[in-house]
Specification:
By secondary structure, the protein is α/β, with parallel strands linked by helices. The protein contains 15 helices and 16 strands. The N and C termini lie far apart (about 60 Å).
Amino acid sequence: MIWQSDSARLALLELISRGSLKRRRTQVEAYDALAELPWTRATGRRDEIGVVEDRSTALAGLIDRVWPAWREVLADLVAAGLPPTPDGYGRLLDMERAAAIPELPERINRRTATSLTASHSKASLTEARKGALGGTDTSHDGAIRLRPPDGLSARTANGTVDLSGIATVLGEVSIPERALLDGLVFEGAIRAVLLVENLGAWRDLCPPPGWLLAHVPGWDTVTVGHMLDRIEGVPVVHFGDLDPNGVRIMLHLRRRVPNLKWFLPEFWFEFVDVCGLPTTWPPDLDLDFAPAPVRALAERGLWLEQERIVFDPRIADELEAVAGAIPDEPFR
């Protein structure tokens, strides 16, 4: 039934309380149904209907049947200074949820926050909804998988842990976002950081001594951004697939790390004729910053996956070379 949705019932509420109704994308079905009733008429304004004189009683009977509490809702909207529209009703519900929020800790997950301040946990956490949380911060609660170099530790207010020791036992370590937000400090030497897009390449690559390897899966860069805030003055290199999405990820990361270096060893392009895979490179993709071999790859409609060169014996020297070539000043 059309009148079971809030947006449809709000169309009725607006029509009966204001005497007119604008056609909105979210209320098209209800608007069209009301426009066909003998109780409504065109107002002369584009996409607007009004109530036929002396027929408001029939509309009141309809809204009484489909939304018995409409008078209370209208009174609450008027008291809050909000219009009888989907946006106004949504803001009213947000205000009611905000009033019912219990005492909160210093930080909560953003999905928990939206479940408290919005209709469900996947809703948008607007500025108004953030304001309802008071001084409570929110986090995505991601985690970043690392392969730390020898001697690297992490210190927080709760103590110090030997990351390289954990990695010796487990093969890797995972750092949660909240630890980074709460002031985690790395202790020990890091010669360079390598951000690796694909899991297989990140896990199987043998890095030069002193390198920290971080798995950065696609666009999930929030947590790695917090990690890089904890590492200053260290060269940062990105190693990803040579395909359109890999280029987009590189551009995205460079907004976060302006002096980020792209790992593009010359020997990689020796595999184009043997291992190049077909793909479509969008004509609007920005390749102006890319070296000539990448642009040539795009012109041929091919791409290269990073896993192919993980075990190449030349990779360690190439990584050392690219780290040493990182300028002190950011790319412009």
